[in-house]
Specification:
single chain, 85 residues, mainly alpha, 5 helices
């Protein structure tokens, strides 16, 4: 009985169509909708950049010296050769 079942299962398995791989599905989407594929790529890049932002920055964005930003320019260094005004 088990051998008859395995023979029937083998025949049924051969009759089934093969499923497309995920890579072929993605490639087909890119071929049919190139603009959509580009938009998906931009979205993925933005998500990766947002997730890896801590690794890419070299300074603390919240460590600002507002006193130095709002103070008058310091004339301790000589003026540049460029004339303005």
């Amino acid at each position: 009985m088990a051998s008859a079942y395995s023979a029937v299962a083998a025949v049924v398995a051969d009759d089934l169509p093969r499923r497309a791989s995920r890579l072929s599905i993605v490639w087909g989407f890119c071929r049919r909708n190139p603009l959509g594929a580009f938009g998906a790529l931009v979205g993925i890049v933005m998500m990766v950049m947002a997730a890896a932002a801590e690794l890419m920055t070299s300074y603390d964005p919240t460590a600002n010296d507002f006193g130095a930003m709002l103070s008058a320019p310091v004339s301790s260094r000589p003026p540049s050769g460029r004339r303005s005004g």
